[in-house]
Automatic annotation (TrEMBL):
It is a multi-pass membrane protein. It is found in: Cell membrane. It comes from Streptomyces lydicus. This is Murein biosynthesis integral membrane protein MurJ. The keyword Membrane applies. GO terms for molecular function: lipid-linked peptidoglycan transporter activity. The lineage of its organism: Bacteria, Bacillati, Actinomycetota, Actinomycetes, Kitasatosporales.
Amino acid sequence: MAVGTVVSRATGLFRNVLQAAALGTGLLASTYNTANVVPMSLYTLLIGGALNSVLVPQLVRARAEHTDGGRAFEQRLVTLVLSVLAVGTLLSVWAAPQLVAVYTPDTPATHAAFELTVVFARFLLPQIFFYGLFFILGQVLNARSKFGAMMWTPVLNNLVLIAMFGVYLGLLAGPDRIEDVTQGQIDLLGLATTGGIALQGLALIPFVRAAGFRFRPRFDWRGSGLGRSIAAARWTLLFVLANLAAMTVVTHYANAADQQLPTAGVGYTAYSYAQTVWMLPQSIVTVSLVTALLPRMSRAVAEDRLDDLRGDLSRALRASGVLIVPAAFFFLALGPQTAQLLFAHGSVDAAAAAPAGHMLQAFGLGLIPFSAQYLLLRGFYAFEDTRTPFWTALWISAVNVALATACHLLLPARWSVTGMAAACAVAYGIGLLVTALLLRRRIAGRLDGRRLCRTYGRLAVAAALAGAAGRLAAWACSGASVPTGWAPALALTAGGLTMALLFLVLARVLRIDELRRLPGLR
């Protein structure tokens, strides 16, 4: 699973590098990126949140309790999900202008950017259905403890987009202004982007067939047990709404910064690129752990084995922390060099890549609570409790929106979105505290807190000292007489190696036992 996720994220990162080179980091890129975020947001709102948090435990329970091994329940569930998404996709394409207006303003001064975003959205909104196909088939596989295919098939989507942006860079002249974008460029970006998601979803069909699932449309939903899933999903819908509210506010404010400085790379595209890089360690480490652990934790709760649940959560937090904590300090220490190496190509120069680097630094330490809170929430989902995660999401979103609004109103456009990245980190810190307190109460007042605090404290000390040394090494190399394009690579290599070696030494000195359990470090 982890290897598949690494390959998927690596190809996704390379795709983003090509995308930045082709479209830049300014207002033009934000029209495409804003349109591209709408389908995933609507998919999550329609049914995606319920799939991830509610339906896996219920699929596991149905396979264990139903006399047919849960086969009929699966068929009804897949039919329901695809039906909802088919209707939702058609309605969203029809309402594209109204949906885009939520994310970016339509005024006389911004009308050209708004119209281009709407055009892109009409191409990209059919992704809603294919996202749903991918995730529901993936959850059918997960319930059977078949995890690999769902981790590997996103590589197909990334390869399609890599080829698309390669063609865009090689054959088409990239426009500097929104008004100069041609219909051919729009068609290429729109059709290939949606085609990649469609391929990703359809590629899972052979795997679910090999796992024994045979799809037969079943509309006999009444009295089938799906009512329990829908009731549980009510709170998940509110959870999704809380998260989407914060994301929508930040997107709107970030697009406003792009409108003020259309070529400076200070708005939504830079924020989304920085956030993508920031989330890579969590996507590789934590998501892989959670995907494997959720069915296991659900079985532990169903069999009233709270000690096993507690042990799984503690081990997952400590194991993930060994990689998440140093990654957070790496972003804090070397964010600018990372962004310059990744994004200062093609349409983006060093000055336009700098804001993304500062945003990556601002996100930095927030990776620790973001990853830990994501893991702890699965403890509630194992109990099929979707109400408590909603209240934690409400806390996080309220803090995020309040701080993002302050940044938008009080900071200049150059720094407002960087402030919003820091606001996100602070919000997840508060969210982690709230989540841990609530989960501790739910599992008999114990969460292995002392052991977790001891491990994370040692990891933070080792990573902070190593990060400081890595930053000094990168600074020392910044004045080296090398070709301009090699300067960030040299600085990042020197800083990263220094940090990694010193962290390993300090981790052994501080006796961080979890480090010895990683492959190759025993």
